[in-house]
Target: 8-oxo-dGTP diphosphatase
Amino acid sequence: MIAKIIVKCIIYNKKLNRFLLIKRCESDDTGADTWENAGGNIENGETPEEAIKREVREETGITDIRIGKIAYVAILNHELPDLLIVYLCETDEKDVRLSFEHSSFVWADEQQCRSLLPTEIISDFEKNNVFDILKGGT
Model:
């Protein structure tokens, strides 16, 4: 059995005290019209950190990204299980240039995150104290 490794990035802008959420296009094969964090598959020869930088640049146009600690790791149960590594990252950039894969973005506070993100992501955020960042925690 071979697991695919997926990296995601919770992008935090300290000046805004918000997380960046991006919305998949309605025609997307996976998760159409749902909100998420930037990220994707690790390509051959990439480290997870290199993949994060590439995915964030491709999906959001943000190039000034500081990769922090791992927020959490999870197993996604698909036909074959996928390993999900979610990093906490920071940027000072506010402007976002979406790729063709996404239709919208928002710099979201906790309430917006809770109303837009799927319940599985909210559950992971709660279990791993991700919202503490917005409350001045680390």
In short: Helices lie at 48-60, 110-116, 119-127. The chain has one domain: 5-135. The mean pLDDT is 92.
